[in-house]
Structures are given as C-alpha cells and as structure tokens.
Amino acid sequence: MKPDMDLIGALTSFSVGTLDGHDAMMVIEIATTPEEYEQGIRHQMPVAMTPEHALELGEALILAARAAQMGDAPSYAFN
C-alpha cells in the first residue's frame, strides 16, 4: 500500500533526553504542510519510551537512513 505523501509532515527539529532517569524521551518538531514550513509554523510532539524502544527506534532510523542513501528503492513498510 502506497502512503498518502500529502499526510507526511517534515521533521524540522528534535531533541532527546531521559525522563526521571528511567525512560528515554524525545521531542520532535514538524511542519505538516509546505505552507506551514514556509511560514515557520511548527508542531511539537513529546514522546516517552522505554530504553529498549529507544534503542530499537535508533536502529530502525539508521537502517532507513542507509536505505535512503542507496537511492530510488521506495519502501512502503510501516510499523
């Protein structure tokens, strides 16, 4: 199934840290439309996760980044 590319926001910033020294936390900042991006409108989403999920997310992002560097081979896999 091909995703609706109009519904995908653009990551503009992120920060990471720990929450109470036990869980990992990140805040992602996105622009949801090209118009919002041009106007500087951003939406922030804080996300808390277990250390195990943080490691899995990091590994998944590395794999996706490496695949993206390989060129035109789109993946429609979503988890």
What labels describe this entry?
79 residues, single chain, three-stranded antiparallel β-sheet, alpha+beta
Chain-wise SSE layout:
Elements (H helix, E strand, L loop, with lengths): L9 E10 L3 E9 L2 H6 L3 E7 L1 H19 L10
Antiparallel strand pairs: 1-2, 2-3
Detailed description of the structure:
This protein has 79 residues and is an alpha+beta fold. 32% of the residues lie in helices and 33% in strands. The protein contains two helices and three strands; from the N terminus they run E-E-H-E-H.
Q: Give the % helix.
A: 25-40%
Largest sheet: 3 strands, antiparallel
Could you give the count of β-strands?
3
Percentage beta strand: 25-35%
Give the helix tally.
2
Shape: flat
Provide the low-confidence segments as ranges: none
Helix and strand element order: EEHEH
Mean of all residue-level pLDDT scores: 87
Radius of gyration: 15 Å
Strand pairing plus helix content: what structural class?
Answer: alpha+beta
Strand order of the largest sheet: 1-2-3
Give the termini separation: 13 Å
Summarize the structure.
By secondary structure, the protein is an alpha+beta fold. The chain contains two helices and three strands, in the order ββαβα.
